[in-house]
What does this fold into?
Amino acid sequence: MSDFLLITLGSHGDVHPFVGIGRDLAARGHRVRLAANDIFRPMVEQAGLGFIPCGDREVFTKVLSNRDVWHHQRGPKVILESIGESLQQVYDLVTGEAGAGTFVVGSSLALGARCAAEKHKLAMATIHLAPICIRSHEVMPVLPGGIDVNYVPRAWRKRFWEGADRFVIDPLILPKLNPFRVSIGLPPVERFQAGWWSAPLLTIGLWPAWFLPRQPDYPPQVRLAGFPLYDESDHVALDDDLEAFLAAGAPPVAFTPGSAMVFGHKFFAAAVDACRRLGRRGLLVTRHAQHLPARLPPFVRHVPFAPFGLLLPRCAAIVHHGGIGTTAQGLRAAIPQLIMPMSHDQPDNAAICRRLGVAAAVRPAFFTGWNVARKLHRLLNSPDVARACEAVAACARGDDPAAASALLIAAADAAEKNASLMPVGAGQTAV
It folds into this structure.
């Protein structure tokens, strides 16, 4: 039995995949503990995993209540500043919880865990949820603000990244990361995304090759495992009221701006207006009911939460923010997607879905009932979109991405342990 310490920072969309992977590791007989914000304790414990708090509800609420989180330029700065503030806490957590044989699995934002693993020589894997996290010159991500440089020559793309590192990415994180590293006796990082961000032993991209293939210039330790798609359906069912609504008429259009969005007034007002214009039923999914219109018409229903794996196959389409978890669930459900990308990985996820032929996008400034209705009408009445949705859903059938991720992690752990037992000069092979 091995000991795995999983650490993820962020919202439900960041925690769900780690729960799915942790459950699979535990089912294989390993000891698994998951560290996340304390707001996720009930979910993690209901899934049968050991839980370690890493941040409290106040910290979680403080970050999400900052409207700039969703701004295409200011959003990354807000997130990276909050991560900079968490470096010491996450470092201390790993230092206190990990023994000599513990294998650490950290999310993209768990930079303190990366430092702790380096300092204490712990085996570690990094898990990135979306393609934008792993740099490539072959297929450039669509960046926040809709910046797409895929049309420029490859040599210019390299210069683009060099400029992004020098003037944008590194100045956002290195002024906090490097003083912390020096304080614990580690050398400064020269380039964050270009060299240090991904663990050198194993880095897992949690998306399938049919969504975006592994690029030739990815680092050699990168493996793709697919969308884990854990959604709490192991202990949460669709409630009776929701079941009754779904059974009472045609499949509704589902609307969600993401579990962490606390500024959804405009989004939900446009959603209701779009349903009225289309003559379709709507389902508004949010834990923040205070952002809904004061009165919902009878053809629109609100639900705080429902496992998307159970809900979306019974919907006609989903309108959402472009988070990778919601995107993946929509792909598996074989339904069209209308995406309102705001920041972070969302514009790139939307662009990939558009290339797959399953989605359209609308900018937040143009997210009105009229525009949403117009774009949804096209999506819902296009035979090409319907065929594309079925094609990508067929690709996902039969996959077990959580198991694939768990196998990669367990294999890396075993290889590290075997390597440490080999005599010096016996020809260890890197994973």
